C-alpha cells in the first residue's frame, strides 16, 4: 500500500458466529457495519452487487441509483445479497479498492406471542425511568436544602402564615387579594 492511499473498507456483520451455519449466513435482523482505517473516509456501498458510484450519490432520499453513503449499521432484506463498498477520502476524492462480500440472508419470523414468564426488554427501561426520576427528585431536594425524610420519621411540616412557600423552595407564593378589598 502506498503512502497517502485510502484503506479499503471492512464489511462486518455484528453478531456472534452461529454453530452449524456458514460464515456468510446471517438473518435479516443482523446489523452490518462498514468501517475504514483511513480517518474521515466516507464509505459508499451497494447491496445489489453493482459497483458503488460516489460521484452519482446525492444527499437525498430515496436515492436515484443503488449507491448509499454509510452512516450507521443497517440490516439486509432476505435473499442472497452482495455488498460492494468503497472508501473515499473527502478532501482528495481518492478512492480505495472495492470490497465485495456476499451474504445469504435468512428470514427470521417475528414473534407475535407474549411469553408471560419473560418481562421483556422494555421492563428494564421502565425500571430505569423510575430510578432516574427518584434520583432526580433526591438531587433536587439536596440542592434546595430539603433533607429527605424516611418513613420512620414522617413529620408533617407546619404551614406558614406569611403566604410564602416553606423554607428551601425558590419562589414565594404571592398573597392573593380578595375581591372587594382595595389596595391602598
Automatic annotation (TrEMBL):
Q: Which domain of life is it from?
A: Eukaryota
- Compositional bias ranges of the Polar residues kind: 141-165
> Which residues fall in a coiled-coil region?
none
Pfam families according to UniProt:
Fn3_assoc (PF13287)
Q: Where is this region: Disordered?
A: 139-184
Entries under InterPro entries matching the protein: DZAN1 (IPR052481), Fn3_assoc_repeat (IPR026876)
This protein's name: ANK_REP_REGION domain-containing protein
Organism of derivation: Mesocestoides corti
